[in-house]
Amino acid sequence: MGTSEPLATASDVQQHAQPQATDGFHLVIDALKLNGIETIFGLPGIPITDFTRLAQAAGLRVISFRHEQNAGNAAAIAGFLTQKPGICLTVSAPGFLNGLTALANANTNCFPMILISGSSEREIVDLQQGDYEEMDQLAVAKPLCKAAFRVLHAEDIGVGIARAIRAAVSGRPGGVYLDLPAKLFAQTVDAEAGRKSLIKVVDPAPRQIPAPDAVQRALALLKSARRPLIVLGKGAAYAQADTEIRSLVEKTGIPYLPMSMAKGLLPDTHEQSAAAARSYVLPEADVVMLVGTRLNWLLSHGKGKTWGGKDHKDWGGQKFIQIDISPQEMDSNVRIDAPLVGDIGSCVSALLTGIGSNWPKPPAEWLGAISERKNKNIAKMAETLAKNPTPMNFHSALNVVRDIIKANPDAILVNEGANALDYTRSIVDMYKPRKRLDVGTWGVMGIGMGFSVAAAVVGGQPVIAVEGDSAFGFSGMEVETICRYNLPVCVVVLNNNGVYRGTDVNPTGGPDVAPTVFVKGARYDKLMEAFGGVGVHATTPAELRRAMEQAIRSRKPTLINAVIDEAAGTESGRITSLNPTSGKKK
Ligand code: OXT
Ligand code: ADP
Ligand code: MG
Q: Is residue 262 in contact with ligand 2, taking CB distance under 6 Å?
């Protein structure tokens, strides 16, 4: 060393002796950030408390919930809205299990989501020696999600996160589980080696171009149709191919039916919408093109009386074209004559090229017959909506929501319940894509507040959550979360004192109320007030309208307890037929 060199300081010496290190906590955060993840939905505790603090310090938005299922639902719908995997973070065993329902639901709905859970020590768990929150979480998660991974070494975090992201968003999107044992978080590695181990995923959801012969087959079948119909599902909404889908519908002139979460892909007021003639078009159509929708229970499995069959297994005679990214979806329930496997954007673009500019419009008799049914139903609906009964019923309350959404088409509508769901779906028109979020493929209760929080956080628009009083109870405590983050969410509880109705009685005459009945006249609005939000008790459409307008204007967390006639609902709403009842007389 030359004499002219300055003396090393104490910290220089330390840095040379101990090269800069990073650890599991930071590597997970860095890997998420590197891949464009901006938000984590979760609930802190052992072993991930510090992770949540460090993530916030590193600039990620960390939204803490009161129950993991709601955090999981938030992550799932964030995935649906953004095409990036929504991240849910939970503690070991019980926290993990609380989040698992949401993961399974995300997978069922084809929403991309990653449940990252801390877990206990592998060597103790595997010998079943009774660790704190012991559970073989990877094994439990595996059958309920699309893919499940565990990372044991900090150097593998980059690969683990990359695999989880790819699995969630590529092909058919779905739920992925990532198991991070407690010990991993504190493992240290050289900072440079750690940085090099991270992977920025290139093209996480590659386009899947359909085969040209499959496109030709689909076009030929479509051209042969006398009574064609397009059904749009939530896969079409997810695909964000809004312009192409609209062109396909408009260039062909084919009537379309939106599934619930595809409402608004084209405005519900579009002249080609056949939503108000559903029970006419399904059995009458001869060629049906399915775009991102499965022939599951919601479409009566493509057969049976809904489709003009003689009994529930009988095929109605329709020919099907199905556009889906999953080849295995084809023939799941009935024969698919023209499978078109690929991503919706690519498939619809390929069809548009083949369709050109002078595709013949469907026969006028078909369009005329649909218009006639549709106009009749719409006129009948208008008549019902114009009534103002006392007490308020679903129609008079939802007529207000309908107007509010019309005036605020960017607002996101979250919806759950039975009657509260079914009436909202048919009464409240949607005008823009991905603005209606609901119970999805499982008809699950409990998505309400998780979806609302995520919609407000990633959508940046006011959220209106129309909730049955039972449905609201599944995630109601999250109104504290809504207030804590000051989110522009207006919850409307359609309160009819119970599950479906509030009128059942205990046949024994005993002191317990009937299983479907709640506390009469409950004041859900007080729950919101408890956390500093705005609570409103509304017994008339005018009061409901005032409160909703105010909520949209102020963007303040608001809960409106909308009192509905307790006799107004029907058993299970529109799906009464799925509810077995005993034939045995008492
Ligand atoms: O053509 P026809 O004549 O048939 O008419 C149709 C359309 O043409 C017409 N229409 C229109 N007319 C005029 N104008 C317009 N714009 C228009 N648009 C449409 O209207 C009709 C109906 O149209 P639709 O809806 O398109 O057609 P249809 O035949 O209904 O469609 C069939 C389906 C299957 C596609 C549709 O019904 C559907 O999507 N259904 C989803 C049903 C669903 O998922 N329900 C939720 C589950 S129910 C039950 O399970 C509940 N639970 C149990 C439970 C659950 N789920 N989860 C968990 C974790 N635990 C337990 C519970 C506890 S619901 C529930 C709570 C219920 O109580 P709440 O208090 O919350 O709610 P309330 O009931 O309000 O009290
Ligand atoms: P709905 O409940 O609205 O009928 P489903 O959830 O049953 O809709 O169906 C959605 C379908 O969309 C799934 O079969 C899924 O594989 C498919 N899908 C999702 N994303 C895409 C995409 N980008 N391209 C093609 N198909 C997709
Ligand atoms: Mg109810």
A: yes
The answer to whether the CB of 555 is under 6 A from ligand 1 is no
Residue 19 has pLDDT above 90, yes or no: no
CA-nearest of 404, 381, 387, 532 to 466 is 404
Q: Looking at the CA of 262, which ligand is closest?
A: 2
| Phi–psi pair at 530, nearest 5 degrees | -60, -25
Tokens for 401? 């929501």
196 has pLDDT over 50? yes
Q: Please compute the mean of the pLDDT values over residues 458-463 and round it to a whole number.
A: 95
pTM for the predicted model, two decimal places: 0.96
Between CA 395 and CA 384 the distance in angstroms is: 7
Residue 161: closest CA among 84, 91, 96? 84
CA separation, residue 291 to residues 215, 347, 434 (Å): 14, 10, 15
Q: How many CA atoms, within 13 angstroms, populate the side-chain half-sphere of residue 141?
A: 33
User: Is 278 near ligand 1, meaning CB less than 6 Å away?
Assistant: yes
Q: Model confidence over 286-301: pLDDT tens digits?
A: 999 999 999 999 999 9
Whole-number pLDDT of residue 583: 83
* CB distance 343 to ligand 2 below 6 Å: yes
Report which bound ligand comes closest to the CA of 446.
1
Whether residue 385 has its Cβ less than 6 Å from ligand 1: no
Which atom of ligand 1 is nearest to 416's Cα?
A: 71
DSSP-derived letter for residue 113 is E
Q: How far apart are CA 412 and CA 425, in angstroms?
A: 13
Tracing tokens 């479907």 back to the chain, one arrives at 516
241 within 8 A of 345, measured Cβ to Cβ: yes
Contact predicate 482/546, CB 8 Å = no
Ligand nearest to the CA of 563: 3
pLDDT for position 585: 59
Q: Looking at the CA of residue 420, tell me the nearest atom of ligand 1.
A: 75
Measured CA distances, 557 to 292, 412, 463, 505, 533 (Å): 34, 14, 10, 35, 5
